[in-house]
Amino acid sequence: MALDLTGDNSFWRSGDAGFAIGQTPVLLSVPHSGRNYPDALLNNLRVPSHALQKLEDRYADLLISEAVKDNHEALSALAPRAWIDLNRHLDDLDRCAITGIAASSALQPLPKVKWHERAGQKGSPYRASVGLGLVPTRLNSYGDLWRDRWAMADIAQRIEQVHAPYHQAIAERLDQRLSLFGCAILLDIHSMPSLPNEAGKPETPVQILFGDRFGASAPDGLISQMERLTRDHGFRTGRNRPYAGGYILDRHNRPDGPIYAVQVEVDRALYLDRQGVPGRAIEAVRRLIAALANVAADYAYGMRRIEAAE
């Protein structure tokens, strides 16, 4: 039977697994952990299928279980990033790797701007040019991923069936929380390879990295509380460099709501063993993610109390 990755079948919702629908101001999103590869994708590969694991936030969906038990609602992708990247703008496409883009296409070249100048902008202008756009096309260690170029009609279908439903689900749930609590907070969960030591700095590398689009998607007070909590759990923290967040944060943060959005990057070495399988150490990371969701909820509750007192 063909794999169904359309609409609601393209992502997991905590309510589907028998968990109560969250009643907190916090929503968790895991956009890059999908491992359900369609035959159409596998049949077009020119690299070994295991190469696509480099695109995954491997098993990051397993990091949110304790937060869900604490009644925070969560969404996680089932469709793989190699099929469509949920953290990319729709225009972030490698046109040379796609057929059927009409000359009159509404897709426009994205402006080349520096990361620190992009706060609040849509899109990710550097990613398609290095093969990591809306539909990934190549990896440094393997080269081109696909035997044949994808048709724009196929990509448009993925946008309609996978990308759009995921973002609609996020938006609807954040609006619900804004209505209920007067504030909503999105925690976008990712995993990263171990970071190198910075030149000239003897400290060991960051293990948990927070991205707030250089202050554009969440207030410093919230991020500072999350950083302190993370250090209290025994992990080393950083902010924005090298990962400041992407399209998901740009699209869903609304400071005037307020709806805040924070990207949380977790060093994979904290929870995967040498074979790339989750080990016992994952429990400490699960507890941390739950604690971060709880402190974010407390921050939102505090904002409501301040507003009520004014």
Question: Could you outline the blueprint of secondary structure elements for this entry?
Answer:
Blueprint: E1 11-13, E2 26-30, H1 39-42, H2 65-69, E3 73-77, E4 98-99, E5 138-139, E6 143-144, E7 150-151, H3 152-181, E8 184-192, E9 208-211, H4 220-232, E10 237-239, H5 247-252, E11 259-267, H6 282-309
Parallel strand pairs: 2-3, 2-8, 4-7, 8-11, 9-10
Antiparallel strand pairs: 1-3, 5-6, 9-11
Pfam families: FGase
Organism: Alterisphingorhabdus coralli
InterPro entries: N-FG_amidohydro
Tell me about this structure.
- It holds the Pfam family FGase.
- InterPro entries: N-FG_amidohydro.
- It comes from Alterisphingorhabdus coralli.
- This is N-formylglutamate amidohydrolase.
- This protein is α/β, with parallel strands linked by helices and 310 residues long.
- It has a domain at 7-38 and 56-88 and 162-309: Zn-dependent exopeptidases (Aminopeptidase, 3-Layer(aba) Sandwich), CATH 3.40.630.40.
- Helix content is 28%, strand content 15%.
- The protein has 6 helices and 11 strands.
- Strands 1-3-2-8-11-9-10 form a 7-stranded mixed sheet, sandwiched between helices. Strands 4-7 form a two-stranded parallel ribbon.
- Strand 5 and strand 6 (143-144) form a beta hairpin.
- Helix 4 (220-232) runs antiparallel to helix 6.
- It starts with 10 loop residues before the first strand and ends with a helix.
- 40% of the residues are buried.
- The model is unreliable at 108-124 (pLDDT under 50).
